UniProtKB/TrEMBL annotation, chains A, E:
Protein name per UniProt: ABC transporter
Species of origin: Lacrimispora algidixylanolytica
Pfam families listed in its UniProt record: ABC_tran
ABC transporter domain mapped to chain residues: 3-234
SUPFAM superfamilies found in the cross-reference section: P-loop containing nucleoside triphosphate hydrolases
UniProtKB keywords: ATP-binding, Nucleotide-binding, Transport
GO molecular function: ATP binding; ATP hydrolysis activity
InterPro entries: AAA+_ATPase, ABC_transporter-like_ATP-bd, ABC_transporter-like_CS, ABC_transporter_ATP-bind, P-loop_NTPase
From TrEMBL, chains B, D:
SUPFAM superfamilies: MetI-like
Topology of this chain in the membrane: Multi-pass membrane protein
Signal sequence extent: none
Subcellular location: Cell membrane
Family designation: Belongs to the binding-protein-dependent transport system permease family.
Protein name from the UniProt record: Sulfonate ABC transporter permease
Coiled coil region boundaries: none
Species of the source: Lacrimispora algidixylanolytica
């Protein structure tokens, strides 16, 4: 077991009250898996991701990654946010170089690595552009390149395509699958789009809210590339829909 | 095209203004040495530029202003970043800052003379004071408003202090700091006149005082116009700078000017 | 060739440094009024004689700012309202008066519709400062006319604002240092109701005041400086005063001409007699309860 | 709890400040009549409040300030809404506004006396001038920044002028106007001192001038403190007001103070 | 024909250049139809809606609604925006009353009407709340109530559910269908979500970009309520997908 979550509980203080956001979550994830966390707004998906990435501490329970207790963020596990988290005052190249600056890497080597990943996400022509000059999808690609540049073991993604329009979104889904295939990373991906989860995930972890609990874990054993209108796809989709009482 | 259009507007606007002024002079019927009309002030302007001393005065004022303003900017930004980061310390300093802020630099004059003497320094000090607080407060509030996501990104990529401050916080706050710099420029330029009241023997503020004492309202108004024009020029410069920062940082364009 | 250049380059500056290092520079603060003319004249005297004393004039916009500089030893001396200097001494600042600035030279200006002190009742009258001879002159006038101070409204106003205030009917009259009174006469918005000689014989107003620090540290040059000052005063006949005032003051020529008729600069010694007369008035009219004594305040070489 | 905490902070902050001040007095060793220490100023404060006149001065200043500020707010908001709506007219007026804005109210003094006399009115005029421009400009820019969607909604629901102005534009711009009111409050309070220099015989600004004239630095500092405290109080009031507007309008809370 | 669009073309000036955004659009719409405009970002959907609603003028061509040329906005056709367009300084009730204030209706009658529609969208308990206190879905319901309150003939909706999370979105889709059924309005609905279009529309107008043209018009002759995983649904969905080259 690569990621091992045991009895994880998270409570927030809100004035006088205590709000239980995650209740006794236990889950194990293997290396190289693509996991989707699916659930309605407010069920604690972001909170769980924050704890896994070391941004926040659990109230109870433990999280082990590769045998070690998670305490602080590290560039071995990189998070990609819905709003991309690019630094607007840096151009694409310098954004991608950000994670390399702390490491003992020569300038020319740094540039080389950055260029490699900028090419990988297909932005070679925009290396000197500012984020503000790029479309949402392109900005998210920069964030992905920046994450890959530090060779992380795990990539956490928090609704990374939530701000994109439906068609761009589907293109990005194909791209992230391609990257997953070629780079062989472990990916934990938060979404509340059911189609997206079924299209991407090896396993879908379905949450129920108040407090956040794991409602069901769905194995998606479809081969890639998946057919969004294929029979098996629709069958799994149907199953998830019924979990949320939608028809 | 746009350029010509805006020059046309300035021209019409100026003409209207001068006409209005002339009408006020005619209707109030004060002695022209008390309320000079546009023509008299025009001659005063010509005389001032003809004799050439005014250029020295402008230069002296600009020199004092530049020093005071830049010192204020530098120290307020550095202090602001620090205090914004160490919020607990600021919580203790804040009441004092808030208490001192609403006090006119004029009121401090006797102590400024005591501590800084006369000549260039008090003018610089007063410009410094009036620029310092807006920049300090806008920097501190900017640090408080930094998108938490940037801090997460910094953490995630193992960026440690002091690099978080120099690589993340400072650039992230820069647009808001630029706005503070803009406001501070305006308010400290206003206090140039007060600053040069204390023992300066040159400068635009001195000219104002001197013209008042010499009962030369024509020179007074001419100097006012010069101060206004330079203030407008400085404001345009920094607006331009601010706009560039905003575009660079990807902020939405402000509503048209 | 190099040698020559270097020797030329070093020769000239050393000569200059030598010249200036021997000179004693005295910083005198003033306001641009006719009461400060002897200082200007003295400065010219020193320049003409290429004396070892040099005066650096520092112009101020108002009395409080000038006094800030004097009290904090930022200037060595100042031509200042003597009552104000006495007040400063009383508050614990270390200064002394060394000579008068002038004799007489103040007038009571009223708007054209006023012909006697009675007409001022219920109206506003402006003085530049509570601690001033102008305040005393006002009190003298009211006293002689048998009017109480409370029957008119006294306002303290910056001198440059007074002619405007009179012109726009905001005040009915004022008494202030010159040439701000003459300005109203020149504009035709006001007239002279009394000359200071009508109210207070041999009145004094501004004085040359030096800091104790300067007096103590420069006992050798002080006497020479004061003597030259008085000499400069004596030289200021009408013609000379006109010339100097035009050079150092920015006011219009007509205004200065009117003003200079009212003032004299002879014999600027502060005598015990005139000073005690001043003290009486200061006490009588409530400017101060315990003004400094002659010995404390007036410098004797 | 929070309340007690903040009082504790103010107390510690005040103590530190006074200690620092005392240390400066001891180390610089100036004559106490030039740089009075805390004790002297404390006695001056007690004396001022004991004699009770200071309350009249505060009242007079507040009265002048309230009139000047409220008149400025009213006229600047109305004019700002109008000029913001009729942008073409504003394009012609803007150069004049920008030219007059950077000029210190002090410089206008001779003309203010000529046109408005002495006493209460010039103080009110100077406070008016210094509050007017920030409010005017922030209102105009607010109208320019109004979300176009609101105008579409108004159009869609057949709302006609003047109701578009009263029902849509004014409330939509109100948070930004409130911010302008806040800035203007600060800057015009600073000019209270300058305003009360012209012929006022009461008020806090007059006290400053009077203390300087009478060389009473202890009274000067005591008055400075009073001005600071009242300024701080006014600022807190309007911040509170601004915060409520923001919450009501659903703006995100600003970063913690 | 209720709405009659003939040869509609729209050009924008951009500095020196002219940008053609809509190119020769012809389309007729019947009363009571639910029309979805579907297309990628930038294809001119919003522009078309703005022209239909009278916010903008066409460069060429004509738009007739109910036989009249459209020139200015009127409350007979109400537009609902993605960001809801509520006035934050008014509470829910006063927002809903907005459109009634211009009409000659007594205060009490106004209140009555407002309450009726607030009930219809299920917000009776929130009539005195401010918009800022409501969730996105609730805010959009207020906007719908406000639109219905003026009894419009047509409702234009520009990506009304774009800012909602996927599950809330599906609930709102059901609600808008229910409102359509009970109030019998003509609805023109912009979206770039293919599922949404198939779920809601009587006809889907598919646009292609640069310049915006009608690529195809798809009749969706499925009965309501539609089954999102039913065979016919998936078949139509598949057809639309292939129009956008997605599988
Ligand atoms: N720092 C915090 N303090 C208090 N409450 C918090 C904090 N962070 C999150 N919460 C609360 O915890 C709950 C879960 O939040 P979280 O952001 O994890 O949900 P989510 O599943 O990511 O929702 P969404 O899909 O909207 O992003 C919410 O009710 C939220 O208000
Ligand atoms: N006022 C305008 N001036 C110039 N160009 C405009 C204007 N409004 C829209 N455009 C341009 O017209 C094109 C179509 O815009 P429109 O907003 O109609 O697209 P859309 O289909 O609604 O896209 P989205 O799905 O992103 O909302 C875009 O390229 C846009 O930049
Ligand atoms: Mg989340
Ligand atoms: Mg659109």
């Amino acid at each position: 077991m690569y990621i091992d979550i045991q009895g994880l509980t998270k409570k927030f203080k809100r004035g006088e009250q205590t709000l239980m956001v995650l209740d006794n979550i236990s889950l194990t994830i293997n290396q190289g898996e693509f996991i989707c966390l699916l659930g309605p707004s407010g069920c604690g998906k972001t909170t769980l991701l924050n704890i896994l990435a070391g941004f926040e501490n659990a109230s109870e329970g433990s999280v082990l990654i590769d045998g070690e207790v998670v305490s602080t963020p590290t560039s071995r596990y990189v998070t990609i946010f819905q709003n991309y988290g690019l630094l607007p005052w840096r151009n694409v190249r310098h954004n991608v170089e950000l994670g390399l600056e702390g490491k003992k890497i020569s300038k020319s080597k740094r540039k080389e690595i950055a260029e490699k990943y900028i090419c990988l996400v297909g932005l070679d022509k925009f290396a000197n552009s500012n984020p503000a000059q790029l479309s949402g999808g392109m900005q998210q690609r920069v964030a992905i390149a920046r994450a890959l540049a530090v060779s992380p073991d795990i990539i956490f993604m928090d609704e990374p395509f939530g701000a994109l329009d439906a068609m761009t979104r589907m293109k990005m889904q194909d791209e992230i699958l391609e990257i997953k295939r070629s780079q062989n990373k472990t990916i934990i991906f938060v979404t509340h789009d059911i189609d997206e989860a079924v299209y991407l995930a090896d396993r879908i972890i379905v949450f129920s809210p108040n407090p956040g609990r794991i409602k069901e874990i769905i194995q998606v054993q479809l081969k890639f590339p998946r057919d969004r209108n294929g029979y098996d796809f629709i069958r799994i989709r149907d199953k998830v829909f019924s979990l949320f009482d939608i028809h | 095209m746009k350029y010509i259009h805006s020059i046309k507007r300035i021209f019409i606007s100026g003409t209207l203004f001068i006409a209005l002024w002339q009408i006020i002079c005619w209707t109030t019927d004060f002695n022209p040495s008390l309320l000079p009309g546009p023509v008299r002030v025009w001659y005063a302007l010509i005389q001032m530029f003809g004799e050439g001393n005014i250029l020295n005065d402008i230069q002296d004022s600009m020199y004092r202003f530049a020093i005071g303003y830049l010192l204020a900017a530098l120290s307020a930004i550095i202090l602001g970043l620090t205090l914004g980061w160490f919020k607990e310390i600021f919580a203790y300093i804040n009441p004092i800052v808030q208490l001192l802020r609403p006090i006119s630099p004029i009121a401090w004059m006797p102590f400024i003379v005591l501590l800084f003497g006369i000549g260039d320094v008090p003018a610089i000090v007063i410009i410094f004071i009036s620029a310092f607080f807006p920049i300090l407060l806008s920097t501190i509030s900017a640090v408080g408003n930094v998108d938490k996501m940037y801090l997460k990104v910094a953490d995630n990529f193992d960026i440690k202090q002091p690099y978080v401050l120099t690589k993340i916080i400072f650039p992230a706050t820069f647009p808001q700091i630029a706005n503070g710099l803009h406001i501070a420029l305006g308010s400290s330029w206003i206090f140039l006149v007060a600053g040069e009241m204390v023992g300066s023997q040159t400068g635009l503020g001195y000219l104002i005082i001197d013209a008042r004492n010499n009962l030369r309202t024509d020179i007074l108004l001419a100097t006012i116009i010069i101060i206004g024009v330079i203030g407008l020029f400085l404001d345009t410069l920094i607006s331009q700078f601010e706009k560039q920062i905003y575009t660079r940082w990807g902020y939405e364009r402000e509503g048209k000017k | 060739a190099n040698n020559i250049v270097i020797s030329q380059g070093t020769d000239v500056p050393t000569q200059e440094v030598k010249n200036t290092s021997e000179k004693k520079t005295i910083k005198i603060a003033y306001l641009p009024i006719t009461h400060a003319l002897p200082v200007f004249r003295e400065k010219e005297l020193f320049e003409k004689e290429s004396s070892n004393i040099e005066i650096e004039l520092i112009k101020y916009g108002s009395w409080p700012e000038l006094l800030d500089a004097l009290n904090t030893n930022r200037v060595d001396g100042a031509s200042v309202l003597i009552e104000l200097a006495m007040k400063s001494k009383e508050e614990g600042n270390d200064i002394k008066a060394v000579a008068l600035g002038h004799h007489d030279g103040n007038v009571i200006i009223v708007s054209n519709d006023i012909s006697s002190p009675e007409d001022l009742k219920g109206k506003k009258f402006a003085i530049p400062h509570r601690q001033s001879s102008h305040n005393i002159l006002l009190n003298e006038m009211l006293n002689q006319a048998g009017i109480s101070l409370r029957e008119l409204e006294i306002v303290e106003l910056a001198p440059p604002e007074m002619p405007s205030a009179l012109a726009s009917g905001q005040i009915a009259g004022y008494c202030v240092a010159e040439p701000f009174g003459a300005k109203a006469v020149d504009l035709g918005v006001g007239k002279v109701l009394y000359d200071s000689t009508d109210l207070w014989r041999d009145s004094i107003c501004c004085a040359l005041v030096m800091t104790d620090k300067f007096l103590n540290e420069n006992s050798d040059t002080v006497n020479q400086f004061i003597a030259s000052y008085k000499e400069a005063g004596n030289q200021l006949n009408n013609e000379e005063a006109e010339k100097i005032s035009k050079e150092y003051l920015g006011q219009e020529k007509d205004v200065l001409d009117i003003s200079l008729k009212w003032i004299s600069y002879n014999d600027l010694d502060i005598t015990e007699e005139t000073y005690s007369a001043l003290i009486d008035k200061v006490k009588k009219y409530g400017l101060s309860d315990n003004p400094p004594s002659f010995e404390e305040f007036v410098y004797k070489p």
